[in-house]
Amino acid sequence: MDIEQTYLKNAIATNNIPSRFHSPFAKQLDATLISLDLDNSSITCAFTVSGEYLHGGGVVQGGIIASMLDFAMAMLSLATIEDDYLVATTDLHTQFLKPAMPGRFTATAIFTRKGRTAHFCKADIENSGGIVVATAIATNMIIAPK
Questions:
Q1: What is the pLDDT of residues 64-77, one digit of tens each?
Q2: Residue ranges of the domains in the chain?
Q3: In terms of Cα–Cα distance, which of 77, 86, 89 is closest to 144?
Q4: End-to-end CA distance of the chain
Q5: pTM for this structure?
Q6: pLDDT tens across 98-135, in order?
Q7: Which H, E and C letters describe 68-116, residue by residue?
């Protein structure tokens, strides 16, 4: 089972929320599971972005914002699939709405449609002031174990 899938399944079973994710990417951005509501098919993750992810003018690089949105949507899919299945993002469309300055961000993802082999998701990411700085939609392919 994927390291994050193991973590999510344990968090669900033990109601150990909030807590931190474990993959190297998640650790770099201090990714934390804030809430997971399987009845309403939603997840909220928090991230902290510091100076190494900035470009001109001190703004967070857009790829980092897109990655945080993608991470939240992928974690939602991972939380709902069978053990040992994997998730791969097959497309990701991101709209950047406001400049994102370094600090704490919160991404919330939901399903717009959930099939056996693909999940269709959307997510918003807010800065610490509650302002949505970007939104995204994605398709996550569900990969059966070999």
A1: 999 999 999 999 99
A2: 3-143
A3: 86
A4: 12
A5: 0.91
A6: 999 999 999 999 999 999 999 999 999 999 999 999 99
A7: HHHHHHHHHHHHHCCCCCEEEEEEEEEEECCCCCCEEEEEEEEEEEECC
Tokens representing residue 56 in the block: 């001109």
Helix (H, G, I), strand (E, B) or coil at 4: helix
| CATH topology classification for 3-143 | Thiol Ester Dehydrase; Chain A (3.10.129)
Residues composing the chain? 146
Three-state DSSP state, 15? coil
Closest by CA to 93, choosing from 66, 73, 116, 72, is 66
> Token pair 């980092």 is at which residue?
64
- Residue at token pair 């997840």: 43
What's the CA gap between 111 and 116, in Å, rounded?
13
